Amino acid sequence: MTAAAELGTTPPRAMRRDRWWARAWQDGVEPLLGFAIVIAAWQAGSSLSGVPKVLFPSPADVVWALLDLFNTGILVEYVKLSLLHYLTGVAIGALAGVALGLAIASNRRVSDLLMPLVNFTYAIVEVAWIPLLILWWGYGPSIIIVAVAYVVASPLVHNVVTGVLSVPPVYGRAIRSLGGGSWSVLREVTLPAILPSVFNGVRVGAGFGFRALIFAEMIAQQEGVGYLIFTSAATQQTARTVAGMVVMGVLWLFLDRVYLRPLERASVERWGLTSDAGER
Amino acid sequence: MELSGLSSPVKIAVRGLTIDYPGAAPAERQRVLDGVDIDLHDGEFLCVVGPSGCGKSTLISAIAGFLTPEAGSISLDGKRVQGPGADRGVVFQEYALLPWRSVLDNVALGLKIRGMRREEREAKARHFLELVGLADVAAKYPHQLSGGMKQRAAVARTLTSEPEIVLMDEPFAAIDAQNRLILQEEVLRLWSTLGLTILFVTHSVDEAVFLGDRVIVMAPHPGRVASVVAVDIPRERRRWPAIGSDPDFIRLRDDVLARVRAEHGARRQ
Ligand SMILES: Nc1ncnc2c1ncn2[C@@H]1O[C@H](COP(=O)(O)OP(=O)(O)OP(=O)(O)O)[C@@H](O)[C@H]1O
Ligand SMILES: [Mg+2]
Predict the structure, then answer these.
(1) Which GO terms describe its molecular function (chain B) (predicted)?
(2) Half-sphere exposure (Cβ direction) of A276: Cα atoms closer than 13 Å
């Protein structure tokens, strides 16, 4: 995270003192510096090159487009819808992936039956399903949600299966010798033990799911951030398209920082799972 | 084979216990225990020693109910054992404390599974944590404890469920020599104050003779009972380090050691 942490146990004296301005620079300014450089270069490029705005809007144009979108209420409306569909899809996909993974890992016969199917569908990208779904259900949010859920669930199944199979059997034996049955083993051992792999799987899946969201909205929806990006370009409102892209990036940073990372840290670090879960 | 002279009733009766492990191919099927007979009496401290791979852990797993015998039977108070249960508590070498639960929750786990109310089970768990000297780490998580503390917590967890018998599979094998002696004394103290019945597997002949009323020596390939040695050293003399120079202790230890050595690498026929 911070430079001091990367340097190991004995940071140089100047850093150990940790002046507030040094910390503010590290945490607040440095991460934004990259953005500032890109924006400056972009502004310079667009004003010096003389390419028409329709093809190459400047940062200022994009800011105006954002303000305009905000004032008309479209931005808030679309972001809300995109987020709602996205989070619903992630939740459904996470539940489905965990349930399917548990079923596969718990029983040899279920595994023989389902695993080839899961591997097969894993290879079919969500985009390939969308035309078919449109044919069946027409345009609408259900397609978006299904596309996101699908993308989240399919890698998660693998994570859950390997997670369950790597739980040391001695935990289950301990529970049974304390009088517990399969249900207690699931609740007290299997579910908590696979939590890190579930978080990991959901985090990876959520990244792909976010792309799936935008893509599905572009082709199967008439609202949302993806639709905004696509339809604005089609109507030559290029600044709006770029504004949509910026919103997309900011949304992802927000989701990752606010939900995914803290969630992962909270459980995994407190239990010391990073260091000794693998202990026999 | 029984030299017990023990008057108390038999708690666990193992009769003709035969266990196979399936190999990769049917031909590789391996007989790990072959016709094992053992009586564990009520209130007894029975130790099992034997060369590595002779099936000591397999014996514990079978009595705990994790394995299905090929032939023979195991009964507790005359009732045939089928599958694991809270009447046979197990202390594992690898502790098996749940990393995602605090020490207190780990120790209260058996009571929680039984459906006891939170305040009630925590009070009881605290009582047993106190007995093993861990009252002040109740809120910690297992990874924050030393090996010795983890094993104390694991013992407390098993005892909290008040099992009929306690099975211990090399519980102190991973613990340093100094703490190991302390834990041996403590397990003896718990055994006598709580009136426990214990089957204790160990690699260490010293440990077995220090702890046991009797010591069973097992032979390998396939695993079976080679001999049973009664340890007639009065309980009040079982203190470290004094017992190390006790002539009776030395005599018995050398006797058991010779029997284990004789079995080392032995193979029937
Ligand atoms: N799950 C298993 N599958 C197949 N064979 C096994 C399995 N567990 C143990 N064995 C074999 O059974 C035999 C007895 O193993 P066991 O673990 O009971 O021995 P042990 O006396 O406890 O040894 P140690 O003193 O090293 O702990 C060994 O030959 C071992 O290779
Ligand atoms: Mg063993």
Answers:
(1) ATP binding; ATP hydrolysis activity
(2) 19
How far apart, in Å, are the Cα atoms of A56 and each of A46, A47, A52, A65, A277? 6, 10, 6, 14, 53
Distance CA B24, CA B43 (A): 41
Portion 138-197 of B in contact with A at CB < 8 A: 141-144, 157-158, 161
CB-CB contact of B105 with B157 (8 Å): no
Cβ contacts below 8 Å, chain A against chain B, sum to 79
First and final C-alpha spacing in chain A:
30
Q: B115 — contact with chain A (CB < 8 Å)?
A: no
The structural domains of chain A, with segments of one domain joined by +, span 11-50, 54-279
Residue A206 has pLDDT above 70, yes or no: yes
**DSSP structure class, residue B220:** T
Smallest CA–CA distance from B88 into chain A, residue: A177
Q: Can you name the CATH fold of A54-279? A: MetI-like fold (1.10.3720)
Of the pLDDT bands very low, low, confident and very high (cuts 50, 70, 90), residue B234 is very high
pLDDT at A156 over 80: yes
Confidence of residue A275 (pLDDT cuts 50, 70, 90): very low
Measured CA to CA, the distance from residue A55 to residue A49 in angstroms comes to: 12
- In this prediction, residue A1 has a pLDDT band, given cuts at 50, 70 and 90, of very low
